[in-house]
Amino acid sequence: MTGEQRLKDFAEANHQKTLTRVNSRIYHFLGYGHSNAVAIIGNTSVILIDALDSPGYAADLKAELAGLTDKPVRTIIYTHGHPDHRGGAGVFRDTVEEVIAFVPQKPVLRYYDRLNDVLNQRGAFQFGYDLTEEELVSQGLGIREGKAAGKGGYDPIPPTTLCQEKEVERVIDGVRMKLVSAPGETDDQIFVWLKEDRVICTGDNYYGCWPNLYAIRGTQYRDIAAWVDALDEILSYGAEALLPGHTKPLLGKDLVQEQIKTFRDAIEYVLLETLECLNKGMGMNEAAKQVKLPEKYRDKEFLGEYYGTVEWSVKSIYTGYVGWFDGNAASLMPVSDKEYHAVVRELIGQEKLVEKIQSCLAREEYQMALQLLELTEEEETADGSESQISCRELKKQALLGRARQMTSANARHYLIASAKRIGL
Q1: Against a cut of 0.90, is the pTM above it?
Q2: How many structural domains compose the chain?
Q3: Domain limits at 182?
């Protein structure tokens, strides 16, 4: 089965619009937007945990809520700052009185806003914003974001209450809850514990596939050891229902414990194995090929690489702990890629190089073809010769072929978007 088909099957199983009645006052909304939302019916109002990603999707959620209760949404709690969890909040602006969020436990690097152009471009490639529905297949963690599906752009409500504590206990409209800072996928991530209901709402520290321990759009290092600690803390509550920010809820104490423990253990395994490789003096790429999930984890669908990948996780851990230098003296001050590639081209010869690339494509060795294509003339220096046009065609073929092999929606999107940029 191709990676493309596995991704389609995962999306079919995990992104269907589903309203789950957890108990008489708690509802979980899956597939109403790219992210999930949780509604808690209080004495006189509704408390919303996250608000979907866009006004169009949130309007559908609001209509669904009206069929469940005539009580208005007066409180919104953000589990973290990602816009796909806040972007629909504006739909509830007419009734909302309080919006609660937590400050990040670590500040964003200064001048990060100077990267907006490249981060937006890479984000569009990762999320597949400019792809057709057929090309997209899935946005990984949920249905297509509203901003790319004609449902409107992000319209968040700024928080009115910003918490800095580790834990905050509140009674909101008769609902007792504990809000707990738990850095993981983001440094402002929280979970919400509803003790009387034995329900925990975990935001993006758990979802039913391999997580984005690193996002290819570009992010600061995500502290994976802290993420493991957050999962330990979630486990300690003994919840009977776990409501995530993406994918299906986990219902039943045994399922919650088993699945979150396995999820946690798999992440820690990758972290510790990577550090072991690093300590042995391996380079980053060598470590990334060395670290694989053991057999006992490979058949777990909720660890499938439909969003993040183990390989990207290893590379992020490597650079997060020791930076870019791999310990090889030849890597200290290398010549530019352009210079190096020119020398290799001279040694191999263009004809031989193209023959090898075509051979790789015929055998569906698309990654090797892509790397060999890096040795050809850079596109911006191309003079339109038949040879250079041929290489661009080969690169597009390799990118699209590699995309079909991917289970990761993020990898698939980036490869297809890169192919489309070539044109032809």
Answers
A1: yes
A2: 3
A3: 3-268
